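ESCALATION

Customer reports they have been waiting on this structure for their group meeting. Please prioritize. Original submission:
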Amino acid sequence: MTTTRRTYLLTFALFIVSPVTGQVSMPAAFPSFVVKLPEKLRALPEPLPHGQKEPGFTLRGIKGWMWKPEQYLAEIPVLAEYKMNFMMNCYASMCDIENQRWGEAECNRWWEPLPDSKKKNYEEVVRSCAKYGVQFCFSMNPNLSSKRFADPDRPEDLDSLWQHYRWMQALGVKWFNISLDDISQGIDAKKQATLVNEIFRRLRTEDPKAEMIFCPTFCWGDGTGPDAEKYLKTLAAELDKDVYVFWTGDQVVTPRITRRAAESYRKIVAHRMILWDNYPVNDNSPTMHLGPVSGRDADLCEVIEGYMSNSHCPQNEINRIPMLTCADYAYNPHAYDPARSIGQSIVHLARTKQQRSVLKDVVEAYPGMLLYDKGTSFNPVRERAVSLAKQPGGKSLQRHYIARAELLLKRFRSAFPHQFKDCAQTLADDVAWLQANLLQ
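Update from on-call: job pushed to the front of the queue and completed.
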């Protein structure tokens, strides 16, 4: 696998033929990108070479992003079909997102029992994972956007948090996570380790095969920054040695994830690691990242035992396109080719020539933040349109661009009248934005 970013030609928007001059214009700020659809369907993920029995990463899966139970249920069969074996719920899914906005003080009430209706729905998710051979990992973050931090010095806090893990363990769940990322208060590595260790101790008392993953506050980089290194060395000394640690790569969101950074981080934290890859996640922003995962070193699997992709919200169905490339990489990273993988992902998900064509164009319209290194909220459709104003005949080019976007939306709805509705809504929202902001 090459670890350098590839460039392609984007036929949907980057090359725009002016209806006035007939000249081709390409905004210089954007690398070009094209998907080459394969002539033949081939196995996905790429089969292991002869004689190799084990996939690159032992754990291969995804995390939902504030998904609802029906979204998890929809993706479990897809995970199993493409040799992924791990699914973690978003810790925000365990909050009161049904009645509160995420981030509000009353949303994360981790100390309270979950409503019976919600528990019933997630019990169905656990059963479905078991049916399809996917390990379900139960996750909570008691200290994010919460008015009450979980304090391991208060027995009532430990008991309140434990009730959720005890419930999941009683369902047969083997994998568990406590995340304390994205917090700005309570960053005390020793107390965090005490909290995790106690919940893990209780789990192992009931089931010696229970596994725990901890997502630390400093979960990225090579671990050598002054604050990060002090924090991670405390974790190395205090955290139970059997606990796995989540790591997001060289940065929280990054086009490159390197073995060098992984080795450095692991040496300092002194625990087994699972990669939490923040791709293709859009953090619930009005955009999509549909291109192939890229820039991940082929030999990361020699340092890290698991790979978990972070997902779109709310577009769980169209998320399957980049998700299948993540599955391809995680299963056989040394043979991974992003150009081949994205083409195969499309033809695996499309039933007709019309569907293949329109999915190709949608991916080219939203090729993913890794290509641009712009962050999870980057919307290439809108940004390209704005940049056209700087080109000769900019207004004319923008009108042509909007017409192409309108046509893409029409084609997409025709090809998928009953699928990918969240994707169609994102396209429709972008078309409306272009019309409102550029046609003046």
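Sent to customer with the following note: The CA atoms of residues 201 and 240 lie 9 Å apart.
Escalation resolved.
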